[in-house]
Amino acid sequence: MATRNDILAHILEKKAIAVIRMTDIARLTRVIDAIRAGGVECVEITMSVPGAIDVIKDVSRTIGDKALIGAGTVIDAVTARRAINAGAEFIVGPVLDLGVIGVADEYGKVVIPGAFSPGEIVTAWQAGADIVKVFPATVLGPGYLKDLGGPLPQIRLCPTGGVTVENAGQWIKAGACCVGIGTDLLDKKAIAEDRYEVLTEKARRMVANMKID
Fold first, then answer.
1. Alpha carbon of 153 to those of 81, 86, 125, 144, 175: distances in Å?
2. Which of 114, 121, 175, 192 has a CB 3.0–4.6 Å from the CB of 94, allowing a cystine?
3. Which domain holds residue 188?
């Protein structure tokens, strides 16, 4: 069983978390295989997906040895506990909830709560967050992370919202330890047409863009 440090190290190494909102397990498995082939191995199944807990359970059982499966849009301790019991190795939230952090700590899982302002970010970090999700990052831009890095270099930040295959590298260069990306990586049209090679190519391009010389 992977330790909390192992899980965190894997996320930091891969630098990207794919945010997935799908219920079709057959296609979901193929999507994960496709982005894995391109170098993206961390997958967040959001609680906004109908039957998300069952989806996490099924995916964790079938390909949990190939990809790091986490739960997203977790806003309370009860949901965090259910997700972890279903197989989630990391918990991501759109907001800061101390109960969620407490449950993740209890089970030895990585927790990435959401925060927006510097005050919220510091509070999340001091409460025990492994990484703080900067959300929504769409309106902030990479410059915001760069500004935060001056007084708060010790805090690991993961922007989500507004991250694309092409600009992911800009976020990393601005100080992000990793990024959360959904729509731009997980091309809905390509998935509907079973053209999974499109996802692999996008993942490869993003991974290449995130490399810092």
1. 31, 34, 12, 13, 8
2. 114
3. 4-208
In a domain, residue 176? The reply is: yes
Task: For residue 97, report the phi and psi dihedrals to the nearest 5 degrees.
Answer: -130, 115
182 part of a folded domain? yes
Catalytic residues: 44, 133
> Of how many residues is the chain composed?
213
Residue 85 lies in a domain: yes
Query: How many domains does the chain fold into?
Result: 1
Nearest to 89 by CA among 101, 73, 107: 107
Q: Say what the pTM is.
A: 0.96
> CATH number for the domain including 29?
3.20.20.70
Residue 213 maps to a domain: no
Q: Give me the phi and psi of 139, to 5 degrees please.
A: -85, -5
What string of pLDDT tens digits covers the 213 residues of the chain?
789 999 999 999 999 999 998 878 889 999 999 999 999 999 999 998 889 999 999 999 998 889 999 999 999 999 999 999 999 999 999 999 999 999 999 999 999 999 999 999 999 999 999 999 999 998 889 999 999 999 999 999 999 999 999 999 999 999 999 999 999 999 999 999 999 999 999 999 999 999 976
Sign of CA dihedral 28, 205, 69, 75: negative
Tokens read off for 113: 């709560």
